[in-house]
Amino acid sequence: MNILHRYLLREIGITFLGVTGLLLVIFLSGTLVRILVETLQGDYPATIMFALLGLKGASSLMLVVPIALFISVLLALGRLYHDSEMAAMLACGIGPDQIMRSVTRVAMIVTVVVTWLALFFSPWAEEMSHRLLDEAASRPQIEGINPGRFNILGDGKYLIYVESMAEDRSSLSQLFAHAILQNQEYLVTASGAREVHDPKSGERYLVLENGFRYEGKPGQSEFNVVEFREHGLLLQERAIVPSKRRSNAVSTLTLLTSGVPADQAELQWRISVPISTLLLALLAVPLSRTAPREGRYGRLVVGILLYIVYNNLISVARSALSKGDIPFWVGTWWVHLLLLAMLIGFLWSQRRLRGPRGNKGVSGAPA
Description:
2 domains
């Protein structure tokens, strides 16, 4: 019997790893596209792109794991029913109660991990993402230049084009820059540029080499032309200004002591994640029960539809709580109670169908 339990857990575990990996790839592909677009727009340097992607991926685990476990139990048990393996297990004495206990053990372990992800790890990852972006915004603007395209810097004041850049981003080649400052227009061209650090003052300079500087007022034909061999520009370090934090980056301890409706909604949302992990995994057990000739993925479609409705109801309750339309003690709890009632209803109906026969060997047969 222990062999059959291990076989059942292995089926769920392998499916869970595969589904989790697939959902992560789907989620991160969209996140990667967004980060790439923002990087190309010069919102932050390319050097932090992969670190930011890693933090976003780690934060998304709390959203991926519950649905991955739900789908995994549905797929694993559904395959066993479809291939008549479940009938053989039932004949060996492993009934629905034993299967429910096995799934409950797995679900409890995953729920503990998800609780840690939702309450502690995910807020930390979001906070680190904000800090990474804040530090990137404080760096000299040369680090945000992308070669081979026009870069808009300084809130639209500067237009810079660089043909190529060294890997350490300390030197540039074939530079063109345009700026309008105090009703004065500037055009600068240079064959190259390098970054120089002054050890005495600690300041950094961008030294342009072998170029021309054109100065004049827009609409007038008179321009001053200056040819230079070297022309230094001070790279000013900008102070780190903390950006506005979203509620998902606030620590759980801070949310516990906050009376703001938006913080209370975020707290209940985080608590909802482990609750939904456990309830969905248990719901998948009676939901996966199919006849051998029934479609293998029929119950999967039903399960996904139930998950969408359940998740949308949580979002509606969360929004209402954040606006103060419903009290904290109502919050999202009623949505979980609905899912719990549905779970009890499924279990009761299946027990009622097989109960009157009174034959243990027949009671576990798939409907």
